[in-house]
Amino acid sequence: MREGSAWAWVPSVSFSAGVPYVAVMMLSTVMYKNLGISNADLAFYTAWLYLPWVVKPLWSPIVELVGTKRRWIVLLQLVCGAGLAAVALTLHASDFFRWTLLIFWLMAFASATQDIATDGFYMLGLPTQHQQAAFVGVRSTFYKLAMIAGQGGLVYLAGELIKSTGDPVHAWSMVFALMAVVFLLLCGWHQFILPRPDSDRTHNAGGALWRDFVYTFVSFFQKKDIVVTLGFLLLYRLGEAQLLKMAAPFLLDPRDKGGLGLTTSDFGLVYGTIGVCALLAGGLVGGVVVSRFGLKRALMPMVFIMHVPDLVFVYLATALPEHLTTIALCLAVEQFGYGFGFAAFLLYMVLVADGPHKTAHYAMCTGFMALGMMLPGMVSGWIQQQLGYQHFFVWACISTLPAFAMAARVRIPADFGR
Q1: Rounded distance, CA 373 to CA 241, Å?
Q2: What is the mean pLDDT of residues 17-46?
């Protein structure tokens, strides 16, 4: 395939892969906070939405065995688009929390499955290593643009609609309706423009594939130092998992409840836009540092730079600054550190997955990574309500200590990453 034709679908597929994830994992938190859901319920139930990304390796063979990856992508985008429209409609119901959570669950499973199909389709639609290398940056950039558009632009739009109408239900209903229209248009575009590689076909050797699948799981848990590896994957973001769940409630809660009292529009600007841009910058700089010094030398400094900036939330919860510039700067520092340190985590998963089953083993690593975010996130709201924001953020910083302990124990080849 010519690289010129790949530009017609690689950016849009990457962007559309990010949209449902942003809706399920980020917009839902802000929306529920605007609609009066308690921090404990908000954190517990939205953290459960990580589960499809935890267990997606379990049904990945189905994507290989049934239909084509092209068909999976288009079908799942149709499901996600319908889900976005359903959220817009059910927000007006009296029991909206239950119905929207059910829809978000469906979208989460569809999005996680779309990730499987999309990763496989890239390798088929861009068959040469040169093409895959040429577009790896494009994929990452447009996925992150979906985060900025959702967590930044759409949250800002919701805030402005709340200001003008005084009705958060109507505002978020309009936002999700807009997302549904855009996403269904992307679905139609991909039905028309996605290539049809000859290698993208249904497999018939189902028994052999299933046997290989079982062996793939067994071989992952037979890796050297697997206990240390699993500990690292589960604990590296223990503090960050709790902090991230409570960041939006803290920034949005009024000052008499210990929050900063930002409007939804201000949140979309300082956290969803400036914060995400700092996150991207941190990831890029982190990648450069690892390529220069190697993961072994860079890991501990990167763990330090990732977690120490969490202290800015302790400062924010203590000082409660009023100037938006000060708040934006603090959030940018924290998000830059998060992106910087997360680059090391991603590269470590590449190291763990290396071998004859690297695609499946990397998917398993990401599953444990998601589990490490889901479990602490579930209890973060309850902990915050017991401690208050100031002491909660102190607790979140203390929770980063296991990451330092596990980073000191993992074994990394001296030249890996260079």
Answers
A1: 5
A2: 89
Question: Are both 69 and 141 inside the same structural domain?
Answer: yes
Structural domain includes residue 212 = no
- Total count of domains within the chain: 2
Token pair for residue 54?
A: 């935890």
**Cα distance between residue 124 and residue 200, in whole Å:** 7
Question: Quick check: is 45 in a domain?
Answer: yes
> Phi and psi dihedrals of 237, rounded to 5?
-115, 30
In a domain, 318, yes or no: yes
- Looking at the structure, tell me whether residues 346 and 252 fall in a common domain: yes
Q: What is the pLDDT of residue 26?
A: 86
Residues 255-289 pLDDT 10s: 989 999 999 889 888 888 888 888 888 888 887 88
* Selection from 247, 344, 246 nearest residue 300 by Cα: 344
Same domain flag for 113 and 251: no
Residues 15, 343, 136, 146, Cα dihedral to 10°: 10
Q: How many helices (H) and strands (E) does the chain have?
A: 21, 0
**What is d(CA 312, CA 210) in angstroms, rounded to the nearest whole number?**
49
Contact residues for 187 (Cβ-Cβ < 8 A; gap 6+): 16, 74, 77, 78, 81
CATH number at residue 386: 1.20.1250.20
Q: Residue 35 in 3-state DSSP?
A: coil
Same domain, 144 and 257: no
The answer to the question of residue 32 being in a domain is yes
- CB atoms < 10 A from the CB of 293, how many? 15
Q: Are residues 269 and 395 in the same domain?
A: yes
The single-letter DSSP state of residue 91 is T
Amino acid in the structure at residue 218: V
The sign of the dihedral angle between the CA atoms of 159, 163, 165, 169 is positive
Is residue 202 within 8 Å of residue 17, measured between CB atoms? no
pLDDT at 2: 46
| Domain span holding position 144 | 8-194
Q: Tell the residue number behind the tokens 């959030």, with chain if given.
A: 331
Cβ contact 162:268 at 8 Å: no
Q: Which residues contact 128 (CB under 8 A, 6 or more apart)?
A: none
Residues 148-194 have pLDDT tens digits of 888 888 888 999 999 889 899 999 999 999 999 998 999 999 888 88
Question: H-helix or E-strand containing 146?
Answer: helix 129-147
pLDDT, averaged across the chain: 85
Question: How many other C-beta atoms are found inside a 10 Å radius of the C-beta of residue 301?
Answer: 14
* Mean pLDDT of the 397-415 span: 89
